[in-house]
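User:
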Amino acid sequence: MKPVLSVFAAALLVAAPGFAQEAGPELPYAMTSSVTLPSTDTGWDYVKFEPGSARLFMGRLGDGLTVYDVDRGQPIKTMENSRGANGPVLLPKYNRGYVAMDDGSLLSFDLKTLTVIARTKLASDGGLNSGSLDPATGRLHVITGTRPSEATWFSIDAATGKLLATTRFPFRKMDDPAADGKGHLYAPARLDGIVLKLDSRTLAEQARWDVGCNVSKMKYLAATDRLLGACTGDKPAVFLMDPVSGKILSRVTIGKGLDALAYDDERERIVSSNYEGSMTVIQREGPDSLRLVATVRTAYGARMMDMDHRTGRLYLVNADSTDFPGKGDEEEVTRYHPDSFRVETWQPN
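Assistant: Predicted structure:
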């Protein structure tokens, strides 16, 4: 037996260097840190960077709006009177921050000092979901959450916080529009699976396009004059669209439960974070084509993130949770574990 074993061992030694040289594909992202913050059993919604800064604003519903310094890896402040924070909008040009609140009010604050200016009631029939700036008009459009029949947009003067107009659309659920800066907004009507092209000054409809899925995210890519969209629901996908014709140019399937979408201009890379516990990484190849790069496995419920465009790093938030069955036909109830809310840093390669 000894000669046979020696030959077999020699064969392994010869083959080993060959196996070692077969390196796998480069990892697009790797988690480099996870910081746990004090928290109650609250849920959360949007997290957004102040453009050009290290400050990440996190809408933690029960705990309020928490400002987190990603360079130091620690919280700076939780805003006063911010319980119910849902969707922050940060506008350095006007030294203003705004937060869509779950009681239908809009919180405004000084962006430099982080002091509250006002908390103004806008909607009396439920919470506000989010908001986005149209640079062509200087208007901030704040949008209601899901409603029985109509979505409402409150158009605000971004510099002063003054309410300028209220516009209603015949859709149960709408999300933030993409602005091209040239007088058009591209607004997703999620449950209807359509994108509306609107005049940014009047909000008059100019066109509507069926995209075949529950579209909830839209971004305008100025470098290529294309729209980037993303869908949740039973047909989750990221797509590229021609803003003139509404034609879908490329589509890639993503993970289930999309809730945030980031675009890395430097790497021409798109990332979605998904409730199922994944981030889908997609490469833009030319103006009209998308290619799936990888699926990064995260943790179940890690649906919300944002990108630090100074570094390309992703900051993903999550907390430990327990699900309880609902009563009768009601949906299950999720409770988050106190002092388990965490901010994860994912480094790009």
